[in-house]
Structure formats: structure tokens, C-alpha cells
Structure prediction request, 235 residues.
Amino acid sequence: MDAPRFTLICCSVDPAAAEALRRNVAATIGEPFEFDVWDNRGRNVGLCDVYDRCAERSGGEYLCFVHEDVRFLTEGWGARLAAKLCEPDCGVIGFAGSVLKLRRTFPGFHCYDLDFTTAVFAAGRRNYVCNTVLVEHFSAGAYSYGWLEALETYHRKWAGRLPLGVEPLDGARLADLDRRAEAYFLKLLCQKRLFGACPFRRIVRYIRAYPGRAASWALPFKYLKYHLKSLVRHG
Prediction:
């Protein structure tokens, strides 16, 4: 058997899902690989810790950290990734991402991936989002107060380097993006019923800062709408 070119690392709580992923990878990767599944049922080891332990014992040239609730749709994707990964300045290749990471007084997502990719970028490597390999993800993610706390930690750690973007932005454009991002995130917090992180006074503060913007007048109605839905759900 050829030496594995890829090590796929998966933290699993569902053996059937992990096996389905292994079969999917075997049918689509087109390269020698090993599949390292960490059974985390009843153990609840942190994801970063799991990835570190599995990476230390890996035998592959390239590491692929993957959730068990995904499916690769593009055949021969291993060669496509390897062609890019072998470039001297290549850091991380991901399958989702954005062109800009703003400073927001507001936190966002569980951020082990953000932290890792930011560290790789800070070390002088280039990160990429892959648009040539299709991956289906069966989960929309979990939104909780733990999710908020994670990015607060990320922001504290990398405050001196934010914002990060693929191209420089002038002050006016950056201010406009900050304004739009804040409105979007306030709406998202309301949608996810995280009202403790989005008290109405924060909506009022946004309105006072941007009184002429459409979002300023839409946000109070969004807040009321989702608050009422939450009350009905738990009433």
C-alpha cells in the first residue's frame, strides 16, 4: 500500500456518520490516505486538543481536519488540494470563509478555526478558500453563549492584528463595513434568542450612532419580533 499522502482527522460522536465519511473520502479523494477517527463519545475532549493529539501521530504529508457531518462531492479532490498545498507559502486551505475579518465589539463564532488560520497568516503564510472542490455540510452550526465567549477570547488574543482582509481598505470603506456588520450581528443575536448579549439598549445605541440608516429603524422591529416569538415558544 502506498504511503498516505493525506491524513484526515475527524472528531466523532457518531460512528455511523464517521464511517459514511470514510467511505465517501475513499470514493472521491483519488490519493492514498489514512483516516484517523477520535471517538469522543462520553469523553468530551476539546476539539483543539483532539486535533493536536491526532496531528502528532499522523503519517500523512498533508493534514485535513474534517467534521463527520460533511460529504465531498468532487472526485479527485486530493490532487487538486495537493497541487496548492505544495507551494512554499501555502498555509491553510479551507472550504468556507470571508475576505475580511473585522474588529466588532460583538463576538461571532466558535473560533478554533479562526485562531488557527490567523496564527498561520501571522507566521507569514497565505491562506486560501477552495472554490473548486464541492463539499456538502449537513449542519448549520450551533449558536449559544459559549459560541459568543469563544470569539471574545479570539478578539482579545488578536486585537492588535484586526481587521484582517485580502486587500487593503480605506477608512471610509472599513467604517461602512463595520456599521453593516454590527447591524447584521445584532439581528443574528435576536434571531438566535441570545438577548442577554443583545439588550435593547444596544439597539438604541446603534440607532443613535446611525440615525439615518435603514437598519436603524428595522432593528427595533426585529428585536420585538424575535422577543415575542421567544415568549410564545416558552409560554
